[in-house]
Fold Cupin.
Amino acid sequence: MCDGSTKGTATPTVLIDNARTRVTEWRFAARGDNTGWHRHGYDYVVVPIQDGILEITGKDGAVTKAELKTGVPYYRDLGVEHDVVNGNDFEFAFIELEFLENADG
């Protein structure tokens, strides 16, 4: 997810990484823990593994609160730029699946 442009405090754990797909667990220890500012280089899907709130700061500086529900995925196209922050008073985590290869091959 993160291209390394700004170091965050959340912990990414890569679970699968091959020529077609990267699967990463993102774990946020506490409120305010964040991914760091980054731009997505691939289409991706996020699957929450628990209910919670993420506060997402977009490239325009606007903050959106996203309410995530366990097992309810969402999809985004490549190019999204943001910092993702834990908006909960508890540890929070989600799984991110990046599609590293086009469907056309």
In short: Residues 21 and 99 are 5 Å apart (CA to CA). The domain at 11-99 is CATH 2.60.120.10 (Jelly Rolls). The chain has a mean pLDDT of 92.
